[in-house]
User: Fold this.
Amino acid sequence: MNKALYLFFIGFLCFSVSHAQEFSFGIKGGPSYVMGGQITGRVGGGTDFAGTVEADSQFKYHGGGFFEIRFNKFLIRPEVIYSAMETEFQFPTQPSTYAVEKVSVPLLFGYNVWGPIDIYGGPAYQKILDASLEGNEPDQPVVVQNNPLAAQAGIKAAFGRFELDLRYDRTLASEEPYIINIVNGGNEGFGINTANFDDSRLNQILLSISFKIFDSAANPGRRKGGCYF
Assistant:
């Protein structure tokens, strides 16, 4: 199945490039504003914390690469993006960092609205590489999402070989609570014991600076048509 998808993707890019007016590829990266996470304590004793804590948003970072194909005012842009994401729970005795690392593969479709300005959107496949909640007992691992798909939409502006890109990345996973155990007592305790992880999904706003390593618009003598893969 993976091989078939890979061959389809390569074939699609070959067909697109052979019919494109322009194409470019490059690297990108920048800060991310990460949002999400909610935990509610479960009462098991007289001193157990039973409140609900929503995680505080945090700034982290992302980086990756892109390939863009343009047809007049329309564009197709597959990307690969690594994201380091964090939010923070303010538990009763000390804060706990909720950290997730993922790789996203969005396939974006865009339109040039004016001059250097493009708008775009599309689906993204997301692979969770690692997820942790500070103070969580290992017998109840963190589960970030039950669906690998997400949606992305944004706007970008080109300045020669550079681009400034602002987008919203939202997971399409559903809210699915589950039970976790958090270190409660002692110097390392967080003041919350058994709890419901009500919502472990994270969404983010990404601000990227992109650099075009190659841009066919800057190389008008390139060969027309054909596949470059």
Observations:
- Confidence is low (pLDDT under 50) at residues 222-226.
- Residues 116 and 159 are 7 Å apart (CA to CA).
- The longest strand covers residues 95-114.
- The chain has one domain: 32-214.
